[in-house]
Amino acid sequence: MHVPILESLRLEGPELFPSDPGTARILHALQSRCGQEHWTASTPLLRHLHIRSLGIPWEASLYQNLSVLDLRAPGMSPPTITRLLDILRQCPDLDSFALQTPTLTELSVSTTEAEWMVHLPRLRTFHLDGPPPGQIAEILEHLTLPPTTHYTLSTVDSPILPSQYPVLPADHSHFPALSSFRVIDFKQVGPGSILLQCSHITPDDPILTLAVGVSDIAAGLANLSSAIDVTAVESLSVSLQEGTEITFADWCATLCEFASLTTLHLVGATNNTIRSALGTLWTPLAHCPTSPSSPSPRSPTGSPARSLCGKLSELALSEVETPCRVSTDLLWLCDELYYMCGLDETAAEQAARELGLPPSYRNEETAFDNPSWNLYRYWLGDGKLYRRVETPADLHAALEELGFRPEVVPLADFSEAALSHLDVRNWARRLAYTVYHQAAQIPPMPQARF
């Protein structure tokens, strides 16, 4: 058979499941046969092949010279690893590849064999859904892809070693897109599953989307840097589900390689998780349990101690528990950062007075129990509100908008210096907004921003 002008072929069938009330309840067996000769047709111009819920033999001659290969038919018999690599090799101009299959078959092939290395210089999207982590990694190990490729990888199997992310190959040299990430979004989507999105510029355009099962969410977060180069990451968002705790040691392991981090966003975190994160941020790197080096906390010349995430300038909380002693942790964090920025104790105390803090601000219990400033540096509202506050009057209006009574906002305690977030000599200034209100508890807000 010869089909000389066919350029695009789309085969779609209904998805039938045993629980579907529309399925045939009496039917015991159904076998669909199509002669092999139907799939040996010559299709010299075929470039787009889409298959949904149907299947064609993996030996069919259609799998060549394609620019789009989209196979979403989990009911198809799984291909062998060598056959899949052979198909990809016969499509050197492939622009988009998607395969959904529960597994791949056949023994592994060696990456040292040049014949099994496949170069796809034009591939824009690579989507592999379903196989175990090791098989996904093995396919990737045999590919060389351009820096413009976007990856979507999904597996339902829980790896034995979740911290090692075995779905990704150990050697990233053939995948230039998997480096120099600027934005990472780590999201827990189930008791034992995570969705990881890594981007070069904005979170709206992820280069790597990874859905994987893990046996320990905290370990998956703590060992993120073991699989991905995070040294250039500037923004990290961590979304957790109820009941998940990230300990101080886990945060140290997570953040120790984030040397360029400027924004940290925690979503759904418990108070313990927040306090552990704050404690990690003001801990000198030398004192971190997983510290890669051991610098002196403070040199004799008074130079700043090296801290985790020393470039951090924005900390945001969303969907969190009602803060309790978190406010005190913020106090210590800010005070420690003044110290690490080279300011002596007198300068830190002067800054505290500038910000309207009581003289007893160093006393944890007094600070916690004192209703005059009970949420130290706690900023409420979204980013638009944050950027709008420039003067005491702006702050007064913002607090009213948030539901605070005007009479409990002593504006006289706020100076212009305290309200200026343009002075970024150290990021403590950028966090410096003291919110006074009538209750010891914060009203529920969709987002709290520091």
Please write out the topology:
Elements: E1 8-12, E2 48-52, E3 68-72, H1 81-89, E4 96-100, E5 118-119, E6 125-130, H2 133-141, E7 143-144, E8 150-155, E9 183-190, E10 193-199, E11 206-213, H3 217-222, E12 235-239, H4 248-255, E13 263-267, H5 271-281, E14 314-318, H6 326-340, H7 345-354, H8 364-369, H9 383-388, H10 392-401, H11 416-419, H12 427-430, E15 447-449
Parallel strand pairs: 1-2, 2-3, 3-4, 4-6, 5-7, 6-8, 8-11, 9-12, 12-13, 13-14
Antiparallel strand pairs: 9-10, 10-11, 14-15
Helix pairs in contact: 4-5, 5-6
Could you explain how this protein is built, in words?
The chain is an alpha/beta fold and 450 residues long. α1 (81-89) links the parallel β3 (68-72) and β4. Mean pLDDT is 69; it is low at 291-305, 338-344, 354-358, 360-389 and 402-450. It folds into 3 domains: 1-13 and 36-169, Alpha-Beta Horseshoe (Leucine-rich repeat, LRR (right-handed beta-alpha superhelix)); 179-286 and 307-321; 327-450, no CATH class. It has 12 helices and 15 strands. 22% of the residues lie in helices and 17% in strands. It has helices at residues 81-89, 133-141, 217-222, 248-255, 271-281, 326-340, 345-354, 364-369, 383-388, 392-401, 416-419, 427-430, and strands at 8-12, 48-52, 68-72, 96-100, 118-119, 125-130, 143-144, 150-155, 183-190, 193-199, 206-213, 235-239, 263-267, 314-318, 447-449. The termini are far apart. A 13-stranded mixed β-sheet has the order 1-2-3-4-6-8-11-10-9-12-13-14-15. The protein has a two-stranded parallel ribbon with strand order 5-7.
